[in-house]
Write a structure and sequence with these properties.
Layout: H1 5-16, E1 23-25, H2 28-31, H3 37-40, E2 44-46, E3 58-61, E4 64-68, H4 74-78, E5 84-88, H5 91-106
Parallel strand pairs: 1-2
Antiparallel strand pairs: 3-4, 4-5
């Protein structure tokens, strides 16, 4: 789930500054009351192509990839055993992640 208020606030502030923000999530985000969906629905695409969860947890920020098991939630931050990997300045890997992102974006809806 994606329920972290600090991350939601950071994304909202980035949008206000003119930063391009795109998010792909599965349709459970629409059903979760505490999710980020209501406040960021204009930048969220719903991937309903897959019958299961959209379980990727990836951020691509310029030439940086952030990935791992971390769910961007208060539970993940304070209670769970999680991992988070930050990979900087690996253009080849960033391009591979962007290719994967664009595949999911093609079959996702606003």
């Amino acid at each position: 789930s994606f329920t972290s208020s600090p991350i939601k606030e950071a994304l909202t502030a980035a949008i206000v500054r003119g930063v391009s923000v795109e998010i792909i999530m599965d349709d459970t985000v629409v059903k979760t009351q505490s999710s980020i969906y209501p406040s960021l629905k204009d930048v969220i695409r719903i991937d309903s192509f897959h019958s299961g969860l959209q379980h990727n947890k990836v951020m691509i920020i310029d030439n940086t990839i952030i990935t791992g098991s971390f769910n961007y939630s208060n539970n993940a931050e304070y209670n769970n055993g999680e991992n988070l990997l930050v990979i900087k300045n690996n253009k080849c890997l960033v391009n591979q992640y962007k290719i994967d992102y664009n595949k999911h974006k093609e079959h996702s809806n606003k």
